[in-house]
Specification:
The complex is a heterodimer of chains A (about 325) and B (about 725). Chain A is mostly helical and about 325 residues long. Chain A has 14 helices and no strands. Chain B is globular and about 95 Å long. The chains are: A mainly alpha (about 325), B alpha+beta (about 725).
Amino acid sequence: MIKYILKRLVYIIPILIGVNLLTFALFFVVNSPDEIARLHLGNKRVTQEQIYAWNEERGYNNPLFYNNSEKGLDAIQKTIFYEKSLKLFLFDFGVSDSGRDIKYDIQQRMWPSLAIALPSLIVGVLINITFALFFVFFRSTYVDYFGVIICVALMSISSLFYIIGGQYLISKLLHLVPISGYAHGYDAVKFLILPVIISVIYGIGSGTRWYRSLFLEEIEKDYVKTAKSKGLSESSVLFNHVFKNALIPILTGIVVILPLLFLGSLIVESFFGIPGLGSYTIDAIQSQDFAIVRAMVFLGTILYIVGLILTDISYTLVDPRVRLK
Amino acid sequence: MFNYHKYIIIACIIFLKGCSDKPLNNPYSDNLNNLKNVYYSSFQERPKHLDPARSYSSNEYAFIAQIYEPLYQYHYLKKPYELIPLTAAEMPEIIYLDDKFNETTLNKKIYYTKYIIKIKQGVLYQDHPAFYKKDNEYFYHNLNDDQLKNIDTLKDFKYESTRELTSDDYIYQIKRLADYKNHSPISGVMSEYIFGFDDFKNKINKKSELNYKKRIKFIQSTNIQGIEKINKYKFSIIIKNQYPQFIYWLAMPFFSPMPWEADSFYMQENLIKKNITLNWFPVGTGPFRLIENNPNLRMVLDYNKNFRGEVYPSLNDKIIDKKLISSNSVKAVPFIDKAIFSLEKEQIPRWNKFLQGYYDSSGIASDNYDQAVSLSNSGDIKLTEELKAKGIHLNTATAASTYYIGFNMLDPVVGGKESKARYLRQAITLAIDYDEYISIFANGRGIVAQSPIPPGIFGYQDGKKSYNKTIYKKVDNSLVKKNIVKAKDLLKKAGYVNGLDQKTGKPLVLYFEATGSGADTYAFLNWLRKQFKKIDIQLVTRVTDYNRFQEKMINGTGQIFQWGWNADYPDPENFLFLLYSKNGKVKYGGENASNYSNYEFDKLFLRMKNMKNTKKRKELIENMLTIIQNDSPWVWGFHPKSFSLSHSWLENVESNLMANNTLKYKKINNNIRHDKISKWNKPDFTLLHILFIIFLIFIFSVLLTIRKKEKEKAYD
């Protein structure tokens, strides 16, 4: 298995280089360094001299990929691509275009993201499994049909509707929790209730249907018929046999998204004023802070690949038949 | 058998116990009873820079103007706007100099102007670790990683100290404006005015190899020729020629004092790595200090206990012999102890929190406009009954800003000095109905512009005595816009009949450079196309992002565009310079985006620029306006009106759009706030109770059904 993991880790390098190149090209095809500088220096009274100084300070005056004026390794090293993108491989995220240390900001902002994402995931999975088991228990009855219709309806509604509707009902009309905001420590709880509830409700439709189909697939299998023929009750079959065996895809499905929880949710964080990595990324895109965007894309890629590797590993842990080679 | 009943009863008790009358939606960590003397507000966009050398936007000024103190400030209550001393002991002494720096008089040629500035004694900075000394050495100026182990923010430093404000601090800050490392947006403008500024700029910019300590030493030891320290509390600035508006710059945060200790403290690499920089943690002498800077969440200003105190202004205040004679004597300002600004990017939560009383003041977004204000039968704007019942106040003021549609005067079709192009521009100016624009797109919040000069600024044409004669005429003593027939006549004179070029027979197609996206932009562009269609001109809109748009403006490749300008200071020069040829965007990289050039206008501009607000100046401005109104390089758009709302407990709310340091004047009536918030935010548990009962019934029936199903026989 170690050999397998090492092999997968080596595969990461070309993927990361590709992603980096793509992000880099997209950013610099869309905007020239001068335009980025102008955006950061403001609209009023900006001179070309200031733009030059801003670019110079951030190394944007260097050539993109190859520096003709330098010799040897410097020709590669004194380029924007090397300075801004290749250093990421050493986890040197550098400073943002507004001058802040990106690594420090990420370390600070991943916790609020996690504070929403983790409870949303746990509560969401528990509720989705409960509903899925309930529908499976009453499969092929009106309860099941009606449940599926509700799930499809829930899936069809935009997340913005849940957010605005939730804020209107729970916070504005009923005055039960703050509309938005965040605090550190235990004070965060009252701010997290609404976004977590909304995230959970938003996920019920798709989650329940997904788990329901897993359970239904499992319930058709021969061992279930055997268990039933032994005289086991419906609930016992469902909980002790079907549920346990369906846990494999459920678990692996959760493991793949675990690392991504750090990255937060773009819309939820923005609407609820949560200072997480989701809103960090959105802000960076809006202000065209290339340094932050590339760092976040890089981080996202790594976390996604780590998630995939963890999924593979978790397969071997929950299903002894699977061996990684 | 599993006994569900007792669990249900326990759950009910816990649930009901949690229901109380106390507001649960308080978005602050503090208990409602503790919300004393704290001002609550929000900000939409996180400030990028809090360094006064660099900051140049209103969302940044909202914070730094409360912390840093430039030499002068705008009188809070007086209109037209009037400058009064802030940290300066009095208004500056102004001496005119000849080419040999000898004193001269206004009737002779003036080569230089000297401002002698005296600052108040005993003004102290806020407590800050940068000032703390141990054994006569600055304790935190050589920090190592060990010392920084438990430091994440400025308040983690154990020791703090202060020191007195001196003239050196102002001189140091002016030198910082020249240092390219600080990216000050006004370094270019100051090069034009402050004598020796450019030389200093060249010197410091050649010293990029110096480490920060040597750099600070270099800045301190190298003088700007035109700036002289007279003594600890007095210094002088020499500017080239005359530039009476220079004093307004001295009231802007760019000219706030900066202690060298702050630079020395914040430039340490290991502090920068922790994002503890001058850009984020200001050091000022003002009434407040920033105690929490988390622009992704909230910014907290706390009362600066070292603040010397200030009297609340009165309309009877006068400046006699350069000194401010205040009719109040009690040093009461600031009235509040703390101000909490929360980041609120989305308009819906921001508005709702204001209505719940958790923000003391608010603007009015277009989506909330109908909920906030309504038009009376007489056409006046008034608050809706809902807001009136809450005791909310509406404050209105016309901003010292102008929004316009500009023609690129370098363009072969709409630009140039030929009468053909001028008639075309005049025809378009007549066709575009800005009254309609204000009504549709600004909810009536604006005034149609006669010229670039907005209300409240000397030389403003109010549409009564003076007005734009190219577009308007007087009928029965009221101002009427010339009709579309006149516009078509002008178009005919321009060589276009029914939208067709008389020479080529081809339809006239013009191009509008637009930025932005979304429904609002497209609605505006549709509206604009219709305006052009009135005179049979086809308008092609080219929507692009702001970067591309700026590029087009810089290269002069755009044809027609929309832009705006917010005043730096309340003087007509700050608007008319937008059409001065030496500020042409393409040729000089200036703010004249139309690249307008008119010799007569330029000549008058240079004369007007250095004058005081006299009758003669007014005449010159009138002549200048006549020239530009005839040339029509812009479609004179509108001056926006600012509407803001404040709760009944917030006192001393005045509309002063030039002053930024107004937080110190705000006063909170805590009792009213507490009572109203408690009344408005009583939690309503009805829905929760219903849901809880439904949930119990559901669980109960599910369990029953399951039990029943399991007892069923497989085959009957």
